[in-house]
Design a protein that fits this description.
The protein has helices spanning about 10-15, 45-60, 70-80, 100, 125-130, 150-155, 160-170, 180-190, 210-220, 245-255, 270-275, 290-295, 350-365, 365-370, 385-390, 390-395, 400-415, 425-440, 450-465, 470-480, and strands at about 5, 35-40, 60-70, 90-95, 130, 135, 140, 145-150, 280-285, 305-310, 315-320, 325-330, 335, 340-345, 420. It is α+β, with helices and mostly antiparallel strands. The protein has two domains: about 5-135 and about 340-375, D-Maltodextrin-Binding Protein, domain 2 (3-Layer(aba) Sandwich), CATH 3.40.190.10; about 145-335, Periplasmic binding protein-like II (D-Maltodextrin-Binding Protein, domain 2, 3-Layer(aba) Sandwich). The chain has a six-stranded mixed beta sheet with strand order 1-3-2-4-14-7, sandwiched between helices. Strands 9-8-10 form a three-stranded antiparallel beta sheet. α2 links the parallel β2 and β3. α8 packs parallel to α10 and α9 crosses α10 (about 245-255). It is globular and about 70 Å long.
């Protein structure tokens, strides 16, 4: 277990409003100490620590944040909850784990859903990712989806524009399709100059499969066949070895060619460092890249950070006809990668009321809004007020950068063909199989099709093991489809 960290006066660094003086204790939680679990910081853990400090000032209670490496969170939480242990009063976790955690979570109190700030949460989070089996069991504390970041100093350079058009026959611009993405990546890959085209997360355990999923969404999230990205929503047969997924894996492997040396060991944190350090012309990532790269104390490219919705495709695989469909234009299918960190209260906690009060404080518009603009917090926009309070963003972005960043974030959420991440009982087992085979394909040990065939076979076995009918019902619900 990682060392226990007491939330401290770090709240001042975020500029959070602490509320009434400690003597007022509103509400009064004197003598109450909450244990909150988080991944190893600074991402997310620092935001929980800071909110814990201001909650302590407001209520006279205390919050102790216990940190674990990301890969240990799921088993730590689930083991404790299944055993009925009161090890955690608050857990922060991935929405994809909700199906496994749901039987052990305390339902959100009704009063939270009656507050004026409830409607401030974007409905993709509020009505989809915070709900399981018709119950609100968790609160979004971070808005997660992948967007494109790019260096405006390179893209707007007349000499670069002329050279690009001479080479590729069209104007250098923000890539709208993955074909354009790879042209741009190839063009800016200049090892002798210490510059590469892009950077993605490739390391097993480094959140790799969400980057692969972002590629796949463009080729497999067919607008006429909702819910068919991962499984056939009528049969629950795995679709991960269809031609759309093969194309996505071929693209994902191709990205290594245009990434800095050692990229196969890159996690999501490493690609932010690469972009902020001026090593790459673009990347796609959660919103953290944009915030960190805009901060002159953390970045060599501040003032030159552009943002956009991730590329799409005009060819999308149709699993019903077993062929490619040609669209009239590029279809954007922004992927809700991870889906944003959530906070919930285990039913085994002996401090359920206080724990929900803390979660409400952590996620309120003011505290979450400040966290969203703090580089390293790991918190990205998920409330309408996060998007409309533009002045707050001008503390880190120029007006043009802020406009692009917020447009990319909200435009992705509002996209008609937005792709929702997979949520299933046994998610951890499905993704463990996935990462093993992805790593083999990235290292060249197997072909993309061989890797995906192996994944499909094991996914189908897992589905049968967990119960195909039950998994099908859960999958359809998570994809917003009615029961069969």
């Amino acid at each position: 277990m990682r060392g226990v960290m007491l939330a401290t006066a770090a709240a001042a660094a975020f500029g959070l409003v602490a509320g009434p003086a400690a003597a007022q204790c509103d509400p009064d939680y004197r003598g109450v100490t909450l244990t909150a679990g988080s991944q190893t910081g600074p991402f997310i853990a620092s935001a929980v620590q800071v909110a814990g400090a201001s909650w302590a000032e407001k209520t006279c209670g205390r919050v102790e944040v216990v940190e674990f490496p990301f890969g240990e969170l799921y088993p730590k939480y689930l083991t404790a909850m299944v055993a009925g242990e009161a090890s955690f009063d608050v857990i922060t976790f991935a929405p994809a784990w909700t199906p496994d955690f749901a039987p052990y979570l305390a339902e959100m109190p009704d009063y939270i859903r009656r507050t004026r700030v409830w409607q401030d949460i974007h409905p993709v989070y509020r009505d989809r990712l915070m709900v399981w089996n018709g119950k609100h069991l968790s609160q979004t504390i971070d808005g997660d989806l992948h967007t494109l970041s790019y260096r405006t100093d390179l893209f707007n350079d007349p000499a670069e524009q002329e050279a690009f058009e001479d080479r590729y026959g069209y104007a250098l611009d923000v890539p709208q399709s993955w074909d354009q993405y790879y042209d741009v990546a190839e063009f800016f890959t200049r090892p002798d100059d210490g510059l590469w085209g892009t950077a993605e997360a490739f390391r097993r355990g480094g959140q790799q499969f969400w980057f692969f999923f972002t590629h796949a969404a463009s080729y497999t999230n067919h607008p006429d066949n909702p819910g068919s990205m991962f499984f056939d929503p009528d049969t629950m047969d795995a679709l991960i070895n269809t031609q759309g997924w093969v194309k996505a894996l071929e693209d994902y492997i191709r990205s290594v060619e245009y990434s800095p040396p050692g990229a196969l060991n890159f996690s999501s944190g490493d690609i932010r460092t690469a972009f902020a350090g001026g090593q790459v012309a673009m990347n796609f990532d959660w919103g953290d890249t944009g915030v960190i790269a805009a901060d002159p104390e953390q970045s060599q490219v501040s003032g030159n950070v552009g943002s956009s919705v991730v590329p799409g495709s005009s060819r999308i695989w149709n699993h019903k006809t077993d062929q490619w469909d040609e669209m009239d234009e590029v279809v954007k299918s922004p992927f809700m990668a991870f889906g944003g960190w959530q906070a919930a209260v285990p039913g085994s906690s002996r401090k359920i009321e206080a724990a929900w009060d803390f979660i409400e404080h952590l996620s309120n518009p003011e505290n979450s809004g400040v966290a969203a603009i703090t580089g390293g917090s790991g918190v990205n926009p998920y409330r309408f007020s996060h998007f409309t309070n533009v002045d707050r963003w001008l503390g880190i972005f120029s007006a043009d950068e802020a406009e692009m960043y917020l447009a990319a974030q909200k435009g992705s959420l509002d996209a008609p063909n937005v792709a929702i991440d997979m949520r299933l009982p046994g998610y951890f087992s499905y993704t463990e199989v996935l990462e093993i085979e992805l790593s083999k394909a990235l290292s060249g040990d197997v072909s993309p099709k061989e890797a995906l065939d192996a994944i499909a076979e094991e996914w189908n076995d897992l589905t049968d093991e967990f119960g195909r009918d039950a998994q099908l019902a859960a999958y359809r619900s998570s994809m917003g489809l009615p029961p069969l």
